Amino acid sequence: MSSSASQTELKRVEDLWFPDATLILRAENSLFRVHSGILAARSSVFQDMIAFPQPTPPAESDGNEMVDGHVVVRLHDLAGEVEVFLRAIFDSSFFMPPRSPVKFQVVIGVMRLAHKYDVQFLFRRALSHLDSIFPVQFTDSLDRYSVYGDADHVQFDGGDLTVDFIAFRAALEVGASWILPTAYYNIARESDFMLKLGANCHLSPQEEKLFLAAQTKFLRAFGSTYRFMKLLPSPECDSSQCEDTISEGHDVLKRWNDDCTDMDPLGPWVFDYVDGSLCDGCEDLARVQHRAAQEVFWDTLPTLFGLPGWDELKELRRRVIEETA
User: Cα(5)–Cα(196) distance, rounded to whole angstroms?
Assistant: First the structure.
């Protein structure tokens, strides 16, 4: 290793250091030695980069960084993202299609760099992984926001708004606008979103204004989703228990409203939080009305944030993920 890249400063990533390879990449203080032909076959950007004649030794005197007699190619990307991106290329088992378990940060890192370096199959795969977190279909959103929803295969700290912040920033960067409505929703529904995001997730004044304005709309929409409570009990109800259950449901809703913390029109069913149960007639009436009101809200969700409607966003997603497949 040359004096310009001393061993104390730089770290070789062992699993991505192939002794017979000739391309050495550096990201921050991490070094990767990989096969240029494989990388060029996957990435049109690297293909073009490698096509340019490389300096030949002794090149260090020309100001080039050298390692083991090879010129180092400097990448201005985060080392962690370069590592997962290269692993996805050189290890076919590392980044499998959905629903294989994968860490959220891996998905974001692969998505960003696959977009930047034009590795389309990895870009599409990363976006497909995010579908389960940021759905575009109303029925999928019910599973996502249900208290009984299955654990997601994309692993992250549940309830951590940092996930949504990172996702919407990355979505804006790569043009995946269909991710934005649910990412924005997850942030805006939290009354103290600025506190929960913390200092490491800086929102612009325009974004803060956008989320605060959405909260008022969420509160109104939440009230709309429970207007059916006025219809209960159903005309066919013959259960004495329903009156007590409905009364308890009203108490729960009042506590939610008094706390002013619930701005979650797509959130769970209020009767999941009471001890009693409704008769079939009351249950059917309530669920049909509640779901219909939630669907109305879902249909308007993108426009609440000044985004195109779902039809346009779904078409964009289809073009990116399906047409280029």
Answer: 40
Characterize 141-159 residue by residue with b for buried, 16 or more Cβ atoms within 10 angstroms of its Cβ, and e for exposed: bbebbeeeeeebebebeee
CA 97 to chain centre: 16
| 89 & 206 share domain | yes
- Domain of residue 70 covers 3-79
CA distance 86 to 92: 11
d(CA 104, CA 288): 34
Pairing of strands 11-17, 66-67: unpaired
Closest CA to 225 of 164, 161, 155, 142: 142
Q: 104 to each of 49, 92, 126, 278, how far by Cα in Å? A: 29, 18, 10, 39
Q: Write out pLDDT tens, residues 83-112.
A: 999 999 999 999 999 989 999 999 999 999
Under 8 Å between Cβ of 104 and 155: yes
Q: CA–CA distance from 157 to each of 105, 120, 152 (Å)?
A: 11, 28, 11
Give 155's strand partners: 103
pLDDT at residue 64 greater than cutoff 80: no
> Residue 319 falls within a domain, yes or no?
no
> Above 90 in pLDDT, residue 175?
yes
Say if 312 falls within a structural domain. Answer: no
The pTM for the full model equals 0.89
Helix (H) or strand (E) holding 189: none
One domain for residues 268 and 297: yes
CA dihedral 129, 130, 131, 132 (to 10 degrees): 80
Give the chain's mean pLDDT: 89
Structural domains counted in the chain: 3
d(CA 257, CA 277) in angstroms, rounded, equals 22
Say if residue 19 is exposed, middle or buried (CB neighbours under 10 Å; 0-12, 13-18, 19+): exposed
Q: Is 71 found in the same domain as 96?
A: no
What are 66's strand-pairing partners?
A: 71
Q: Is the separation of the CB atoms in 265 and 222 below 8 Å?
A: yes
Residues 137 and 191 in one domain: yes
